[in-house]
Design goal:
77 residues, 4-stranded mixed β-sheet, 26% strand, Cyt_B5-like_heme/steroid_sf, Cyt_B5-like_heme/steroid-bd
Length: 77
């Protein structure tokens, strides 16, 4: 499984044809195919290419929604 640093993850922001990846609790998910992540933006609040572990604590949904997205790697601290 690929290991991402936070700097690596920034490259996957969903802009200019790049995939949209987000990290949560040490796993990196590919959200590119989700209509909720169009152009790497989610609900005008979050951007792809980031660790959203803290942000998801205040989200109106739990982490269960991430199960539908493929895990593409792990986030190295």
């Amino acid at each position: 499984m690929r290991v991402f640093t936070k700097k690596d993850l920034l490259k996957y922001n969903g802009k200019n044809g790049r995939p949209a990846y987000i990290a949560y609790e040490g796993l990196v998910y590919n959200v590119t195919e989700s209509f909720l992540w169009k152009d790497g933006n989610h609900q005008a609040l979050h951007k792809a290419g980031q660790d959203l572990t803290e942000a998801l604590k205040s989200a109106p949904h739990g982490k269960e929604f991430l199960k539908k997205f493929p895990v593409v790697g792990i986030l190295k601290e």
